[in-house]
Amino acid sequence: MEQTNKNEGISIVACTNKEGYMDNIFSNYRNQILQEKELIIVLNSDSLNLNEWMKKAENYEHVQVYQLPEYTTLGSCLNFGIDKAKFKFVAKWDDDDYYGPAYLDEALKTFQNTDADILGKRSIFMYIPATKELRLRFPGREFKPVKLVLGGTIVAKKTVMQDVPFLDISLSEDTNFIKNARTKGYRILSTSRYNYVYFRWDSNKHTWKPSSRYLKRTSKHIGFFSEIKHIVDEGIP
């Protein structure tokens, strides 16, 4: 276990090229109970209004907003944000998912109590807003060494992300990062199923387009709910 130091917080890097997810990104950040945190937003679209995002950021502490030309790949945007990070650990966040209040806190405590270099979730809650169905993908894969974690849940030591930068691509940049890190011998550990929800919208809103059959085959039904935070949040009253 490494000793705690003043840099032992988490920097969040969130890249987006979509309209409509500003409030989700900021609310996920605001709700985190971990105090040692910062948010680095990289806008990857020429049509997004940088000034609008920067004005929103003024309402929060420790937020930086940048804009890169939309021809810039997602991998390059992530590397740009990671380079700006001031903390020892960096979390890759998706713009459209839910990160519960204890998400960063869980990750930091796991780093402090294990020898992991990379954390993430393999067992994850998946919510389908169109039908209000909540499912659990890949059950039984919590708290163990794994070969793969969901891209939106990657949290790693900054030194690892610098040693294994994301490839200059916009699809499968996360799985390639994990594969290349594993090849270099870095330790990858899954955390709990809690504090995160993968939202599955219509396929045209996702770059990854698996079949509905595959998603159902790799998950189990939990129930139908209009409100899910009381199920997925852990350690929050």
What does this structure look like?
- The chain is 28% helix and 23% strand.
- The protein contains eight helices and twelve strands.
- The protein has helices at residues 22-30, 50-57, 74-84, 103-113, 158-163, 173-183, 212-217, 229-232; strands at residues 10-16, 37-43, 63-67, 89-93, 98-99, 118-120, 124-128, 133-137, 155-157, 188-190, 196-199, 219-224.
- The strands form two sheets. Strands 3-2-1-4-9-6-10 form a seven-stranded mixed sheet, sandwiched between helices. Strands 5-11-7-8-12 form a five-stranded mixed sheet.
Strand content: 15-25%
Q: Quick one: biggest sheet?
A: 7 strands, mixed
Number of strands: 12
Class inferred from helices and paired strands: alpha/beta
Mean model confidence by pLDDT = 92
- State the low-pLDDT regions, or none: none
Q: In one word, what is the shape?
A: globular
Q: Give the SSE order as H and E letters.
A: EHEHEHEEHEEEEHHEEHEH
Distance between the termini: 29 Å
Tell me the number of helical segments per DSSP (H or I, 4 or more residues long): 8
Q: What portion of residues is helical? A: 25-40%
Radius of gyration: 17 Å
- Strand order in the sheet with the most strands: 3-2-1-4-9-6-10
Q: What order do the helices and strands come in, and which of them pair?
A:
Blueprint: E1 10-16, H1 22-30, E2 37-43, H2 50-57, E3 63-67, H3 74-84, E4 89-93, E5 98-99, H4 103-113, E6 118-120, E7 124-128, E8 133-137, E9 155-157, H5 158-163, H6 173-183, E10 188-190, E11 196-199, H7 212-217, E12 219-224, H8 229-232
Parallel strand pairs: 1-2, 1-4, 2-3, 6-10, 7-11
Antiparallel strand pairs: 4-9, 5-11, 6-9, 7-8, 8-12
